Amino acid sequence: MNPFSLEGKHIVVSGASSGIGQQCAISCAEMGARVSLLGRNSERLQQTLSQMDGTGHHIYVVDLTVEEDIKTTVQKIVADSGRISGLLNAAGISGTLLMKSVSGKKLDEFFQNNVYSAYILTREVCRMGHFAQEGGGIVFFSSIMGSYGETGKSLYAMTKGALQAATKSLACELAPKNIRVNAVSPGLIITPINENLPHITDPSKREELERMHLLGLGKTEDVANACVYLLSDASRWVTGVNLYVDGGYTAK
Ligand SMILES: NC(=O)c1ccc[n+]([C@@H]2O[C@H](COP(=O)([O-])OP(=O)(O)OC[C@H]3O[C@@H](n4cnc5c(N)ncnc54)[C@H](OP(=O)(O)O)[C@@H]3O)[C@@H](O)[C@H]2O)c1
Questions:
Q1: Do 96 and 152 contact (CB within 8 A), yes or no?
Q2: Which CATH code, of 3.90.1720.10, 1.10.10.10, 3.30.70.20, 3.40.50.720, is assigned to 10-246?
């Protein structure tokens, strides 16, 4: 038996239409899981699906800022594919904004997209009869910015810090059901979330960021592999952890 195998597991991946979530869906399928893919862009969800091994995967177009749509989507997922053994909350937005430019509307937008969406999706997946009876794993996507500072990142950082905090309390709350709750905190990986942000497009800033990651910038596969571990039986004794997958950014 390979303890990292996801054979027989049904995994829900939000943000599966792009970047890290897309790679997570592909990697979970490679490891034997049936995957339910969530995102807003149906064409890009189809593209992810076309790259996945195995059968029994389904896509769901949903805006995770709409609570009612989350509820009906989770019901559909369970009707289509049965109980859920893992959830990867990869959907999210990012941005670089100085505090003076952060309006109440922006605060709402970031908390809606990065915190409330993941929290409500997790709550719905954990409802009685939706999560597998034997338990499983939930992963929140935090960031190195959830615990380390950079100019212009306070808004994004607040949302990512909130997810780290929720991870620990939910780990306590859900342990009796054998549901493990962990977070991953990736370092910088170039994806559509950041490719047009000033710290990536400005060559000198990007170089500086590359230097701060001791092993250089990461790839989506680096985070997906950590998620496979956190969803697999290999991590059966791991809960409440925030796993940095950051090429050494936080080692200094
Ligand atoms: N890339 C990095 O350097 C990095 C570092 C640390 C943490 N992270 C975190 O890792 C996660 C994935 O990031 P990424 O780089 O893969 O970003 P990405 O390529 O921009 O993908 C973001 C995904 O989130 C989905 N999404 C956003 N808002 C949504 C909503 N309201 N409803 C449904 N889906 C929504 C998008 O769906 P559509 O495209 O279909 O709209 C897309 O699939 C994020 O939580 C991010 O904060 C990334």
A1: yes
A2: 3.40.50.720
